[in-house]
Amino acid sequence: MPQALPPTLSGIVGTNRASTGVTRQIEANDDVAAIGLWLAEYHSSPHTFRSYRKEAERLLLWATQLRGKAVSSLMREDVLAYEAFLAAPLPTWCDDALARHGYHRRLFTGPLSDRSRRQALGILAGLFNYLVRAGYLAGTPFALQPRRRGARGTRRTIERYLERALWQDVLAKVEQWPQTSPREKQRYERARWVLRVLYETALRATEAAQANEGDLRHRRGRWWLHVTGKGGVEGDVPVSDALMADFARYRTFYGLLPTPNSNGRCPLILGIAGRTTPLTATAVYLVVKDALVRVADALEPADPVGAARLRQASTHWLRHTAATHQAEAGNPVHHIQHNLRHSSIATTSIYLHAEEDARHASTTKAHAGASHDPYDKDGTA
C-alpha cells in the first residue's frame, strides 16, 4: 500500500471521518493505518489476509489515483463507479508486462465476473463496517447496497460437488496409476492421501496445508482432527479408522512412524522437498487438479460428461462433495454444520439435495405416466 499521501488523499481530513465527539476504538489517523489495522485482524488466516489485502489495495489505489479521493471520503456514487470499474478495469491495470508482486504490480488479469465483483464488494463492506464500529468513519456508503436476487437469505443448493459414483471412479482410477519408478510411486501415494484426507475431513486447502500430526487427538477411543479455519474459527473434525489406516500407510511410505506424535509438528501433508516441510495451499490445490485431470482423461471415452465435470473440479469441490455425501447418508444437518465449522446452519442446508431429488423423481414419474400426445381429444393443447 502507498505509505505517503497528501492530506487530501490520506484520509486525515476525509469527509466521512467520524466527528471528534465519537469515542475512538483505534489510534489510526489515516486510511492506510486504519486499513492496516483491519487487515491485522486476519493475520492468523493467511488465505483470508491475502484476499482481503488485495481488495483493500485495489480500492485504495483506485480512489487515490483515479477518483482523486481519500478512501474515507468515498460516497455512494463512488461505490457504484468502483463496481463499474471492476467490471471493466483500465487496460493499464491488467498489463501482462507488469510484475505479479510489488507496488507497481498488475492488479487485475481482466474484468471481474459477477461473482467476483460481489465477493470484492462484500469484503469492502466488511472493511467499512469495521471502521464505523471503530469510530474512525461516520458511516458506510455500502449500507445503501440493495439486496439482490440470489443474495444471502435466499436458499440455494450447492452444485460444485462430485456425485458418489463419480467420486468412486476417481478413487478407482487413481489406484490404476503406474508405480514402476520411485517418482511414480511418490506421485501416486501423495495424490491418494491428499484426495482422501480432503474428502474425509472436508478441509479447505489452506487448512490442510497448515495441519500437522499434533492436531490429531485420540479421545474415548476415537480420533479427531483439531482445525483452525477461516477467521480463526476452531473445531474438531471426526476422523474414521479407515482414514487413520490411510494416514499410517502414507507415513510408512516416507519412513515415518504410522501413528501420530501428539506433540509432533510433522505436516499432515508432507512436502516434496522434505518430510518436515509442508505443502503450501497452492501445492495442495495443484496436486488435486493434476489428479482430477488425469482421471478425467482416463474416463473420457466411457463418460465424457463425468470427465468434463472433473476438469472443472478443485479442492473446494471435495469439501462440497464431503458435505453432500454426508447429507445423502443421513448425517444430521447439525453434525455436518460442526464438521464444516459453519456459524449458521442455514449455510449447511445448501448441501441437502434429498428434497430436490424427490421433487425431480415425482415430477418425471408423473410425466412418464401421462400421454406423450400434447393435444387432448378435442384438439386443444
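Second entry:
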Amino acid sequence: MSNRKLRMGMIGGGKDAFIGAIHRIAANMDGQIELVCGALSMHADVAQESGRMLFLDPERIYNNYEDLFKAEAQMPADKRMDFVTIVTPNFAHFAPAMLALENGFNVVVEKPVTFTLEEAQQLKQKVEETGLLLLLTHTYAGYPMVKEARQLIKSGALGKVRKIHVEYIQGWLSRLSEREGNAGAAWRTDPKKSGKSGCMGDIGTHAAHLAEYISGLKITQLNASLNTVVEGRMLDDDGAVLLRFEEGATGSLIASQIAAGEENALKIRVYGENGGLEWAQMEPNTLTIRWQDKPAEVLRAGSNYGGRLSSFATSNCRTPGGHPKGYLEAFGNLYKNFALTLSAKIEGVEPQEEWLDFPSIDDGIRGMAFINNVVASNESNEKWTDYTI
C-alpha cells in the first residue's frame, strides 16, 4: 500500500460553508489524506481568508478553480494534488469536474453529480476516457448497517425482493427560509442554481439511491406527484413517488422538507419472500430483520456476533459495539474506500472488493435520471413514466 498520504484539493467549501467542513473532517478521519490546496470560494477575499484559516500554503490558495488546475498540473509529481473535492452548489459541479479530469486529477463531487443529465453523461465519458476515479458522496451508502443490509439481500437470505418503501422527511424548509438569510435554502430553492427539482433533487435522490443500493434492483418505472407547499417558493418542497423495480418488485418513495419538527428522518424498509429489514438514519447502528417464520433479529454495528456481520459492514466500523457510528463516520467511510482504491491504483496493486464499494459516476447518472423522470411524470398529470436515461 502507498507509503504516503494522498494530497487533496478543494473547490468551494470556504468559511461558513457546512458541507465543505464535513468533507474535510471525513477526509482526515483515517489519516490517509491531507488538504494541500484550494479555491475555496468564488469571492477572492473569502477564498484567501478561508485558505489562511486552514493553514494552507499561501502559494496554493487560489482565487478560482482554473488557476488551481493550471498551477497544480505544473507542480512536481511529489507535490501536486492527487484528487480534488468539489463542494459547490449543483450548477457549479460540471465545469470544474471536467477540467479536473482533463488535467489528470481524480474527483470527489457532491451530489447530484451535475446540473443536467446530459452533463452527467459527458462526465461519464470523460471518466472512461481518462481511467480516473470519481467518488460521488451519497453519504448514506457509507453506513456499516446499510452495507450489511445490502449484503444480506445479496446473499438471498430474504428471498426475492417484493416491496421497497423509503422515505426522507425534513422540516427545515417549513418556512420561506430562502428569504430569511439562509444561504443553503436560497440556492437549493433557486432553479438556476439547484436545477429543475428542489426537494426531490436534494433529498429524493438520496432516497432513490439508497433503495437501489440496498436492494440491488434498479428502478424501471415511476409515478410522481410533486408539491410546492410554501407560498412563494420556486421549486417543489414535498412529493411522493410510486416505484416499479427490476424483477417485479414495487415500492414507494416519500420526500418532504416541509414536515415541521422533523430533523433528518431517512428510513427504508425492504421486504422479500422470507422476511424484511428496516434501517433508519437517525438510529444508524441498528438493522432490524423481521422473519416470516422465526423471531425478529436486531443487529448492531460494531458487534460482530462471532462473524455474523459481513466484511463490508465490519471493515467500515471504527469503534466497538455501542459507540455511535454516525453521519461523519459514514462520510469518512466513502473517503476511506476511495483513498484505499486510489492508493492501490497508484501502487499498481489490485484493490479489495470492500474498498471499491463507493458511489461512482454511474450512480450520478441514475440520480440525474431520477430527477428528470420524476419531473416528467409530475408534469404528465402523474402518469407512469419509464425510467429513461
